[in-house]
UniProtKB/TrEMBL annotation:
Monomer. The porphobilinogen subunits are added to the dipyrromethane group. Its EC number is 2.5.1.61. Belongs to the HMBS family. The lineage of its organism: Bacteria, Bacillati, Bacillota, Bacilli, Bacillales. PANTHER family: PORPHOBILINOGEN DEAMINASE (PTHR11557:SF0). It catalyses: 4 porphobilinogen + H2O = hydroxymethylbilane + 4 NH4(+). InterPro entries: HemC, Porphobilin_deaminase_cofac_BS, Porphobilin_deaminase_N, Porphobilinogen_deaminase_C, Porphobilinogen_deaminase_C_sf. The keyword Cytoplasm does not apply. Keywords: Porphyrin biosynthesis, Transferase. Its cofactor is dipyrromethane. The gene is hemC. This is Porphobilinogen deaminase. Residues 228-302 form the Porphobilinogen deaminase C-terminal domain.
């Protein structure tokens, strides 16, 4: 019987989401009479080793993904489950996205010490986040809040909420949902207040482009509406060269109505802001071609000066 080796990081979230995907793939394989078994292989990435350093200064998001991709290229593993938002814009030669499964909740969540909403946080409350995107939008909505960096995996950030005197921290709802910690969420932030990161809540299953067996199995696992939304968001990201950690967010929704042959209608909203939240550029557009839509919204923001903001942050 064919054994599929699945590479994963060792964080609670990575292990959980990899396990969940493997369970679903087992069911799918059984339904289609595909004989295979799965083996999980843990890999320590550079990103895990230097979580305390400011990631944006040492090479950005690719850090969590790179070593897993090397293992894929080398044939040590056959597939890997990544958080889509951690994926760099371009994949290495020879690797492909085998499937994008159905998206979890894309919103950011607020985890507080006893406050039920963002509006309930007292004047000058201390909020922990090391995401420039979250900081920018939070400061735009509540200029009085104080923001401080908080790093680490989900579990260590929740611990720091208690230990380091934060009034609240921000995390992606999806991660908390996946590891069963939704009870910790005090409030969900709507996209009108906080646009999520590109691909937030979605997963990316990567495999070798030449692996016909994996491509066949994973192809059956793809959720087309999610894939369309993610393509639009990533086209937006690519146009703004948002590979590294920058204050940029985007969210695409997909209409249920797919009347006609042109496919479902996508609506994409994108934002670029200064980290202090004083300047906030936001645009929306609708269309059916995800890449064209992503470029259109990005160009609308560029026309308003988005590239100048991003250049300043990258310095
Ligand atoms: N940058 C870390 C990261 N990458 C993916 C998630 C979980 C949510 C998701 O799948 O989008 C998180 C944690 C967070 O931002 O709270």
């Amino acid at each position: 019987m064919k054994t599929i080796i699945v590479g994963t990081r060792q964080s609670a979230l990575a292990l959980t989401q990899t396990g969940q995907v493997v369970e679903l793939l087992k069911q799918l394989a059984a339904e289609h009479g595909i004989a295979c078994q799965f083996e999980i292989k843990k890999i320590v990435t550079k990103g895990d080793r230097i979580l305390d350093v400011t990631l944006s200064k040492v090479g950005g998001k690719g850090l969590f993904v790179k070593e897993i991709e090397q293992a894929l290229t080398d044939g040590d593993i056959d597939m890997a489950v990544h958080s889509m938002k951690d994926m760099p814009f371009e994949l290495p030669e020879g690797l492909v996205v085998g499937a994008i499964p159905k998206r979890e909740d894309a919103r950011d969540a607020l985890i507080t010490r006893g406050y039920r909403s963002l509006d309930e946080l007292p004047q000058g409350a201390l909020v922990g986040t090391s995401s420039l995107r979250r900081a920018s939008q939070l400061q735009n909505y509540r200029p009085d809040l104080r923001i401080e960096s908080v790093r680490g995996n989900i579990d260590s950030r929740l611990r720091k909420l208690e230990e380091e005197n934060f009034d609240a921290i921000m995390l992606a709802a999806a991660g908390l949902h996946r590891i069963g910690w939704q009870d910790r969420i005090s409030a969900y932030l709507p996209p009108e207040i906080c646009l999520p990161a590109v691909g937030q809540g979605a997963l990316c299953i990567e495999c070798r482009g030449g692996d016909a067996f994996m491509l066949d199995l994973l192809g059956r696992f793809q959720h087309e509406p999610t894939a369309l939304a993610v393509r639009a968001e990533r086209a937006f990201l690519g146009r703004l060269n948002g590979g590294c950690q920058v204050p940029l967010g985007a969210y695409a929704s997909v209409s249920e109505d797919s009347s006609g042959e042109a496919g479902p209608l996508l609506t994409l909203t994108g934002m670029v802001g200064t980290p202090d939240g004083v300047t906030m550029l936001k645009e929306s557009a609708s269309g059916r071609d995800p890449e064209a839509l992503g470029l259109l919204v990005a160009d609308q923001l560029i026309a308003q000066g988005a590239e100048r903001i991003l250049a300043e942050v990258r310095e």
